[in-house]
């Protein structure tokens, strides 16, 4: 386990990491309350990319491809992005 992972685990055990109250799902998407300054566009793009990759590896992706076809599923996937609303 690396230094960053140890720091993450320590923060979570001290209650400093994200908890269930800071994440929720609504009709317009998944939301999170994140303390700190406005996130950079680079960070938002990395979060979007990570979400898309995780979705591609999930059972939901297989269902989407089966029902919609690969091309349409990819189109919808590209619409998934992280946004900051401050």
Layout of helices and strands:
Layout: H1 3-13, E1 23-26, E2 29-32, H2 41-56, H3 59-68, H4 70-78
Antiparallel strand pairs: 1-2
Could you characterize the architecture of this molecule?
With 86 residues, this protein is mainly alpha-helical. It has 2 domains: 1-35, no CATH class; 36-86, no CATH class. Helix content is 53%, strand content 9%. The protein has a two-stranded antiparallel ribbon with strand order 1-2. It is globular and about 40 Å long. The mean pLDDT is 82.
Short description:
With 86 residues, the chain is mostly helical. The protein has four helices and two strands; from the N terminus they run αββααα.
Tally of individual domains = 2
**What is the structural class?**
mainly alpha
* Percentage of residues in strands: 5-15%
Main sheet attributes: strand count, strand direction, barrel closure: 2 strands, antiparallel
Q: Which sequence of SSEs, written as H and E, runs from N to C?
A: HEEHHH
Choose one word for the global shape: globular
What is the average per-residue confidence, as pLDDT, rounded to a whole number? 82
Tell me the strand order in the biggest sheet. 1-2
Unreliable stretches covering 5 or more consecutive residues = none
The tally of beta strands, per DSSP, is 2
């Amino acid at each position: 386990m690396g230094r960053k992972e140890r720091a993450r685990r320590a923060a979570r055990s001290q209650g400093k990491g994200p908890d269930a109250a800071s994440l929720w799902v609504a009709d317009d998407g998944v939301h999170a309350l994140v303390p700190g300054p406005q996130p950079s566009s680079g960070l938002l793009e990395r979060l979007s990319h990570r979400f898309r990759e995780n979705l591609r590896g999930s059972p939901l992706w297989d269902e989407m491809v089966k029902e919609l076809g690969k091309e349409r599923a990819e189109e919808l996937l590209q619409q998934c992005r992280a946004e900051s609303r401050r």
